[in-house]
Design brief:
The complex is a heterodimer of chains A (119) and B (109).
Chain A (H helix, E strand, L loop, with lengths): L2 E5 L3 E2 L5 E8 L9 E7 L6 E7 L4 E3 L7 E6 L4 E6 L8 E10 L2 E5 L3 E5 L2
Parallel strand pairs in A: 2-11
Antiparallel strand pairs in A: 1-3, 3-8, 4-5, 4-9, 5-6, 7-8, 9-10, 9-11
Chain B lengths: L8 E4 L5 E6 L9 E5 L6 E4 L13 E6 L2 E6 L8 E9 L5 E4 L3 E5 L1
Parallel strand pairs in B: 1-9
Antiparallel strand pairs in B: 2-6, 3-4, 3-7, 5-6, 7-8, 7-9
The chains are: A mainly beta (119), B mainly beta (109).
């Protein structure tokens, strides 16, 4: 059973870069034809998709965040990562990593990690 | 950009049927996925590709999709079904990206 776990700083200062890592267990990140996504959710609000990466390294990003987002994959560590630059308080949210299981449906999710942007 | 519209809330008595809609321009031409999210938990996929259920999801959860509306139907609603529900599609019309609906809070009376 695939499991995902987010990790990274819980507090980031405004204007800095938010960096998170998702560690995959229970299977190799490079096996199969899957996309690996990042999604976020501000407190009390809905889900916002940030972007995704294929094991080949190809990416898709939310147009509203594209200029600030970089998603990368490290197959040797079985991890993929998120970098979000120039953060503001509006980027405060629970960040989830997920794996698509069928035709863009995300069947596997991490538990989520809260990132607060504050000085 | 593609927009998915969900009602903010739906209420239903236990044992009854809940229907949660997800509106979008010609959404019937897209594959729609549905997620259940309980407080403090990660979302769980309950229906994918309009009407398929992942293993472990009760048959009470079903989906349909036609025209401009997709619908998640929960039959014989239980107290444990109370949660937020989100629809999701892949928009390949211009930019290629995942779109979520705004979410619907299902209240079991």
């Amino acid at each position: 059973q695939v499991q995902l776990q987010e990790s990274g700083p819980g507090l980031v200062k405004p204007s800095q870069t938010l960096s998170l890592t998702c560690t995959v267990s229970g299977g190799s990140i490079s096996s199969g034809s899957y996309y690996w996504s990042w999604i976020r959710q501000p407190a009390g609000k809905g889900l916002e998709w940030i972007g995704r990466i294929y094991t080949s390294g190809s990416t898709n990003y939310n147009p509203s965040l594209k200029s600030r987002v970089t998603i990368s994959v490290d197959t040797s560590k079985n991890q993929f990562s998120l970098k979000l630059s120039s953060v503001t308080a509006a980027d405060t949210a629970v960040y989830y990593c997920a794996r698509e299981s069928s035709d863009t449906a995300m069947g596997y999710w991490g538990q989520g990690t809260l990132v607060t942007v504050s000085s | 950009s593609y927009v998915l519209t969900q009602p903010p809330s739906v209420s239903v008595a236990p044992g009854q049927t809940a229907r949660i809609t997800c509106g979008g321009n010609n959404i019937g031409s897209k594959s729609v996925h549905w997620y259940q999210q309980k407080p403090g938990q990660a979302p769980v996929l309950v229906v994918y590709d309009d009407s398929d259920r992942p293993s472990g999801i009760p048959e009470r959860f079903s989906g349909s999709n036609s025209g401009n509306t997709a619908t998640l139907t929960i039959s014989r609603v239980e107290a444990g079904d109370e949660a937020d529900y989100y629809c999701q599609v892949w928009d390949s019309s211009s930019d290629h990206y995942v779109v979520f609906g705004g979410g619907t809070k299902l209240t079991v009376l």
